[in-house]
């Protein structure tokens, strides 16, 4: 389908009351719209019933709320088939436009896996959450909390180390990557140190490792504010495309939420209330060494056997 003759660069006024449903600011929505517009060449065929800004808004609401196509059709005063065509057409385009860039990461990376319930039984398996799910690996930048890599989804009954080895391990070379004990065996991932019996040594280095690693769990929890990652009803590559879009949307929001997060205060048992530091975080020397990528500390803390 070719662009509608009613396409404009601004969202028509009648749809602006739906902006809060996206979880984004108007500036962020304009950024997404500009990305989509650059990647949509004119195509022959019947014009779209909805202008491009409205179609982008529809997809963003679909990802944030996970409403059914029937509910979206009622919300946008169009047919259910039109909603389905818009989602099917725009989701791959936005996935390509918003895909995270690993080169944007500074400092060490943190990796963790998460399960996403998906209805498509051809790509899922019953996992530890007793639902048919997929397993995906999320890698973030430890400093800025931006998602750098969102790995391709595998069946949910696969262990994190198996999924990581086949999806993201080849991208981890020449980077300091922190992970939990489930990634033991991947030499490029620094896991908690173990003793001669194979048990994790729960010393100060372990506690520092755990404090830093918690950031990826917080980011994954925020990614699941987009309800499409809590129960995806679409088939095929829809979950992979949706994951890339959500990761890109989070990266648009992250600089605002964590703009002062690099102001760390060393020492103290509680988060510091330093003057001029809004997001101060208590970090001891071990944590600061991990964040700085201190190779000696990483070599002594990891079990890269």
UniProtKB/TrEMBL annotation:
All residue ranges annotated as the Transposase IS4-like domain in the record: 110-252
Record-level GO BP terms: DNA transposition
Domain Transposase Helix-turn-helix positions: 49-99
Spans through the membrane: none
Pfam families: DDE_Tnp_1, HTH_Tnp_4
Highest taxon, organism lineage: Bacteria
GO molecular function, one term: DNA binding
Full protein name: Transposase
High-level lineage: Bacteria, Bacillati, Actinomycetota, Actinomycetes, Mycobacteriales
């Amino acid at each position: 389908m070719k662009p509608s003759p009613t396409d404009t660069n601004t969202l028509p006024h009648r749809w602006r009351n739906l902006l809060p449903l996206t979880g984004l600011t108007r500036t962020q929505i304009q950024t997404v719209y500009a990305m989509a517009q650059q990647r949509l060449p004119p195509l022959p065929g019947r014009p779209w019933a909805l202008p491009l800004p409205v179609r982008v808004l529809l997809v963003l609401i679909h990802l944030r709320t996970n409403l059914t196509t029937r509910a979206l059709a009622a919300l946008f005063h169009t047919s259910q088939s039109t909603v389905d065509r818009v989602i099917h057409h725009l989701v791959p385009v936005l996935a390509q436009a918003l895909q995270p860039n690993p080169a944007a990461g500074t400092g060490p990376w943190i990796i963790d896996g998460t399960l996403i319930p998906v209805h498509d039984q051809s790509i899922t398996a019953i996992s530890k959450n007793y639902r048919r799910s997929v397993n995906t690996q999320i890698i973030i930048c430890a400093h800025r909390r931006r998602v750098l890599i969102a790995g391709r989804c595998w069946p949910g009954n696969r262990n994190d180390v198996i999924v990581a080895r086949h999806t993201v391990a080849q991208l981890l070379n020449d980077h300091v990557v922190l992970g939990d004990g489930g990634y033991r065996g991947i030499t490029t991932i620094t896991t908690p140190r173990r003793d001669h019996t194979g048990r994790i040594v729960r010393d100060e280095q372990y506690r520092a490792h755990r404090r830093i690693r918690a950031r990826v769990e917080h980011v994954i929890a925020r990614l699941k504010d987009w309800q499409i990652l809590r129960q995806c009803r679409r088939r095929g590559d829809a979950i992979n495309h949706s994951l890339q879009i959500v990761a890109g949307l989070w990266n648009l929001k992250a600089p605002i939420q964590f703009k002062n997060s690099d102001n760390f205060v060393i020492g103290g048992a509680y988060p510091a209330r330093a003057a001029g530091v809004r997001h101060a975080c208590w970090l001891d020397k071990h944590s600061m060494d991990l964040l700085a990528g201190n190779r000696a500390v990483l070599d002594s803390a990891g079990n890269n056997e």
